[in-house]
Amino acid sequence: MSNQAESSDSKGTKRDFSTAILERKKAPNRLVVDEAVNDDNSVVCLHPETMEKLQLFRGDTILIKGKKRKDTVCIALADDTCDEPKIRMNKVVRNNLRVRLGDVVSVHQCADVKYGKRVHILPVDDTIEGVTGNLFDAYLKPYFLEAYRPVRKGDLFLVRGGMRSVEFKVIETDPAEYCVVAPDTEIFCEGEPVKREDEDRLDEVGYDDVGGVRKQMAQIRELVELPLRHPQLFKSIGVKPPKGILLYGPPGSGKTLIARAVANETGAFFFCINGPEIMSKLAGESESNLRKAFEEAEKNAPSIIFIDEIDSIAPKREKTNGEVERRIVSQLLTLMDGLKARAHIIVIGATNRPNSIDPALRRFGRFDREIDIGVPDEVGRLEVLRIHTKNMKLADEVDLENIAKNTHGFVGADLAALCTEAALQCIREKMDVIDLEDDSIDAEILNSMAVTNEHFQTALGISNPSALRETVVEVPNVSWEDVGGLENVKRELQELAFFFLSWIGKAKAIAMNAKSASILANCRLVREIFDKARQSAPCVLFLMNWTQLRLREGAV
């Protein structure tokens, strides 16, 4: 009875636990991010009752954990105007935690923070252009003087001085990764400025950057994140955690992005193997490259080994002519079987041709689970569009829901290309007032630019879904009214599966009225065409010369 109650709600209906790992957990120390009133980089504000629940006192140094395994240290202050489940922090702190307003962070006591002996701090190059004088005297000394500010290695912070603001990065801290800068702490600021490009490169992708694959993401997190972060869960139940996952789907659906997001969010070491890159003409070198990858992953465990285009290095052995491919498949089988059950290493393979992979790899103990990263539905496309347009300057009239409805068959990469094309269309319209010879563009022109609904419609007209790019027909503006007579036949075609002579012109009219992707096929490659149609469902599949597809009498 108790088990049934736990898996059922008050009405007796069975609960769906397939996406339970994605649900936001409630706890007193999980607070919602709100905009700060005080713009101090080292201070966050909480409601007094929240501080009492967390056993914090005014001026305590606290550890705040954000997204993508990022954390920082701040001084906690009480604020009666702050809502109880919220925490107020400025933009600098939010950037260090990789969170936005409305996101959830966790707050922890940090009683073991020590006074720093030495800290090494360098400016970011693009914020000191034209700045003269000593940066330490002008910026760092007034900023840290008698402030007892906590700092964390790797954090960025902004210092305002005079008419300019300079951004700095904490390069090293001694004795620990986070410490308090006291009056006797030595501050070093000698060295080359930090390049902005290097900082932008460190802004890795996370779960928020992946859209349209909610159920698949839940499965992947169960199979990857749980064994890496909480291996005791599997040990207590008495089962072995999975060793490998095979992601398959059309190109551009986000398989590589998902693997990188999981690695960044779990903090695991990420080793990427591009299938064709490990191939070598020298005997034994390909297998050696594969062994080195697994050895490197074991040294840096917990690790994720991502093998992209795994079908290129592990094809079916009975269908390959080369001895090298056979040896690589055997080596990969040996390495996966040799992984220790508690080694905290997960192997993720990605392919768009799962049936081309050697069957020996597709069994329990090797690639335990196969997950289809297919073409997203309308809700998924809307998620992806919101991700790609979150930093775009959009006009108020832009209707992303309508765009998602009209982009059937588009994968994530197609939607990203669509957004880029819409932005380019916006730029093209302003080219008559932009002089390419000028060093800069007038601020008034930049402020007037915004991507409109019309720009997206123009981009839609020249963009095609990559899943059907090789087989999609260019559908002209033809409707049922353009087909004369044959009313009974047209009615049957509209209502039922259709079969008619290929020269009367029914296929294009059906494609227009079905409002979906259509494929006009010949007799070749029927299996592949059906696979593509299945990935892009709902899809109208028109088979010309149906009788030619009959392999033998009575069989179709």
TrEMBL record:
Segments forming a coiled coil: none
Name of protein: Cell division control protein 48E
InterPro entries in the record: AAA+_ATPase, AAA_ATPase_domain, AAA_lid_3, Asp_de-COase-like_dom_sf, ATPase_AAA_core, ATPase_AAA_CS, Cdc48_dom2, CDC48_domain_2-like_sf
Domain CDC48, first and last residues per copy: 130-196
Highest taxon above the source species: Eukaryota
CDD domains according to UniProt: RecA-like_CDC48_r1-like
Segments forming domain CDC48 N-terminal subdomain: 30-113
One of the protein's GO biological processes: cell division
One cellular-component annotation, GO: nucleus
Residue ranges of domain AAA+ ATPase in the record: 241-377
TM regions (residue ranges): none
Stored Gene3D superfamilies: 1.10.8.60, 2.40.40.20, 3.10.330.10, P-loop containing nucleotide triphosphate hydrolases (3.40.50.300)
Family membership noted in the UniProt record: Belongs to the AAA ATPase family.
GO molecular function: ATP binding; ATP hydrolysis activity; polyubiquitin modification-dependent protein binding
Keywords: ATP-binding, Cell cycle, Cell division, Nucleotide-binding
